[in-house]
Amino acid sequence: MTRDDVLVVGAGPTGLVLALWLTAQGVKVRIIDKAAAPGTTSRAMAVQARTLELYHQLDLAEAVAEAGRRNPALNLWVRGRRKARLSFGSAGAALTPYPFLLIYPQDQHEQLLASRLEAMGVAVERQTELLDFEDRGGHVAARLRGPGGEVQGHEARFLAGCDGARSTTRHRLGLGFEGGTYDQIFYVADVEAGGPAADGELHLSLEQADFVALLAYGRPGQGRLIGTVRGEREAAETLGFADIGQRAIESLGLRVERVNWFSTYRVHHRVTDHYRRGQVFLLGDAAHIHSPAGGQGMNTGIGDAVNLAWKLAAVLKGQAPDSLLDSYEAERLPFARRLVATTDRIFSLVSAEGALADLLRIRVAPVLAATAFGAGPAREAMFRLLSQTGIRYREGPLSRGMAGRVRGGDRLPWVAWDGGDNFAPLRRIGWQVHVYGTARDGLRAWCEGNGLPLHVFAWHPRHGKAGFARDAAYLVRPDTYVALAEPEGEAASLARYFSERAIVPAGA
Fold first, then answer.
1. PANTHER family from the xrefs (predicted)?
2. Domain 69-99+177-270+366-391: what homologous superfamily?
């Protein structure tokens, strides 16, 4: 009988990120996957800015950004004409170091994450399946089937189910997965193409008959087409690329020269009842699935993993009580519900059929999008939503205070200046304090006495523009969200924050 701190079930991006972040914090991890080998087709494609910000912690951001293709803008096409170009750079340049939509095929993404994990001493155990488990209070006893069909026992303090929409973990917990399945059937095709839309940007064609999105990646002319199958739905599984409607593709002026991969699938929208049951947790598609609108799915699973990883590490090291783990569900479940509702509305708009739907999609939506993107606040709001930089936990149990426009639960705002930015210290996975202006002597002494890094940045008008208050203290969590915003910069407020939650202010 072997035993680890955390048994991670599923080696997709969510499970790999969880294993990486736990291992980086000194947690003993075992990660298994029932597949014989990693996937070889490009499934999830979009890597959002917030994911790249989190990847900065393990020096992954630049490697991923360089390996993928930066799509700098979204273009809306109707009846062969480009109606709007929405620039991610103009919308996000002041918000994040990554003001673009990165397209990086999931199979390549997983390979990079797995290789980084193996370099840290942890290899994915393939052809190893979770059969069952029992939560025994202080630990989980699991039954696994190995590559040769042998059944083995394994014990872990915690079990993390990152095993997808058909999650064995969720089924064994008996948790619900409320939601439904859309009537429409989608197709995906990896293609090599030419024409005006094969320019390395994101293109969306809205037509009466169908719609299609083109996401550029890889070498010039290579991209992923995503569209709906109209009619012949009963036989959709037998269709090939030549069978689907070409009107939306042709409206982009796109010449498809080669199809490397094609598939059809149905789209679901579901969220589980709970993210935690005792010593067992659900993450990623095991907890929530939704339409591909906005490229949110994989990024949301990665966000789940980073949120949970530091909390598990703190509890396992005796730096926090078990109750800290309840905040994982309290923070991530409400976000998943909002996300499913938002992507449902977007999906319904682009895929609905009928005269009214055509009117809204073809005539109204492009005009509204272009108008909204022309206004600064609306443009930034749209970028925050798509990039996930707008995710916050203001109502969560770990969020307190307000200083300037920054509140506890907000993502730490990014501010850059000549030669640096305030995200540089976030490479450290651990608690830290930021002051923009001058730090009080008492705060300095308290942070030094408690081993808490204090980063003081000389005041700059850009700090105020980003929402910071001068001389205030911002307690930053290990996942780079603000836990406490203390307007007076008083050490007593920080001491009280940790004392009330029985958390030791230490990092990895």
1. BINDING MONOOXYGENASE, PUTATIVE (JCVI)-RELATED, TRK SYSTEM POTASSIUM UPTAKE PROTEIN
2. D-Amino Acid Oxidase, subunit A, domain 2 (3.30.9.10)
Quote the pTM value: 0.93
Report how far residue 335's alpha carbon sits from residue 314's, in angstroms, rounded to the nearest whole number: 23
- CB contact set of 222 (below 8 Å; sequence gap of 6+): 190, 191, 192, 216
Find out whether 12 and 110 touch, Cβ atoms under 8 Å.
yes
Residue 31, beta-bridge partner list: 8
pLDDT digits (tens, 9 = 90+) for 115-153: 999 999 999 999 999 999 999 999 999 999 999 999 999
Q: Where does residue 395 rank: exposed (0-12), middle (13-18), buried (19+ CB within 10 A)?
A: exposed
- 400-501: what CATH class? alpha beta
Q: Give the contacts of 78 (CB within 8 A, at least 6 positions apart).
A: 205, 206, 207, 251, 362, 363, 366
Angle of CA points 364, 365, 371, to nearest 5° = 90
> For residue 49, what pLDDT is reported?
96
CB-CB neighbours of 322 under 10 Å = 11
Structure tokens at 202: 């994101």
Q: Which residue(s) pair with 92 in the sheet?
A: none
